[in-house]
Design a protein that fits this description.
Strand order of the largest sheet: 3-2-1-4-5-6-7-8
Number of helices: 6
Largest sheet: 8 strands, mixed
CATH topology of the largest domain: Rossmann fold
Distance between the termini: 27 Å
Bound molecules: 5-O-phosphono-beta-D-ribofuranosylamine
Number of strands: 8
Strand content: 15-25%
CATH architecture of the largest domain: 3-Layer(aba) Sandwich
């Protein structure tokens, strides 16, 4: 079995989707720990309710010393012996060194059709650009932000009356389908591109 650590910062809706799919039969992954950078991350309760160990590594005491923060993360992860990491709404930038340590073993979900709209405010940017389609991507994490090999994408039609909020809500529904489907394949060693709707 592939031991999966999931990193969250907030409600962890993607984390819940990943945990619930790993609880279903035939999945090569098993959750070993959920790590949050804040005690206030709502997803921690959802992980505990599913019997998944949790750990908090608060980034604030490290005051911008990313290497020290990541050393604390590495120490916190060690007892759980993860084979891979899923970033799921994790809002802290990771250094190139950390990404290199986990090269090929760390994935992330981003709310755009990468390589479009790396970074934040993706839904507003897609609307401002007048895009007719938008969506989400699961990618391997590399040193550059939102830039690694793409493992899966889900496409969402943009509607005339969409606001960033209504578009984000429809994209999030697809995230909860795409991310578990990609993790199920990735844990089984399949890195082929998945496009939804299929
Ligand atoms: C989502 O938009 C996701 O694409 C991004 O973080 C947001 C919150 O995710 N990575 P979650 O609900 O905390 O999983």
């Amino acid at each position: 079995m592939v031991r999966v650590a999931i990193f969250i910062s907030g409600g962890g809706s993607n984390m819940v989707a990943l945990l619930d799919d790993m609880a279903r039969s035939g999945h090569a992954g098993i959750p070993c720990v959920v790590l949050a950078n804040s005690e206030d991350a709502g997803g921690l309760a959802h992980a505990s309710a599913r019997g998944v160990p949790t750990v908090v590594v608060d980034h604030r005491p490290f005051a911008g010393d990313r290497a020290a923060f990541e050393a604390a993360i590495t120490a916190a992860l060690d007892p759980f012996a993860p084979d891979m990491i899923c970033l799921a709404g994790f809002m802290r930038k990771l250094t190139a060194e950390f990404a290199d340590q986990w090269a090929g073993r760390m994935i992330n979900i981003h709310p755009s059709l990468l390589p479009k709209y790396k970074g934040l405010n993706t839904h507003a940017r897609a609307l401002e650009a007048g895009d007719h389609v938008h969506g989400c991507s699961v990618h391997e994490v590399t040193a550059a932000l939102d830039d690694g090999p793409i493992l899966g994408q889900a496409v969402v039609e943009v509607r005339q009356d969409d606001t960033p909020e209504t578009l984000a809500a429809r994209v999030l529904v697809q995230e909860h389908i795409l991310y578990p489907a990609v993790l199920r394949r990735f844990a089984a060693g399949d890195r082929s591109l998945l496009i939804l709707p299929s």
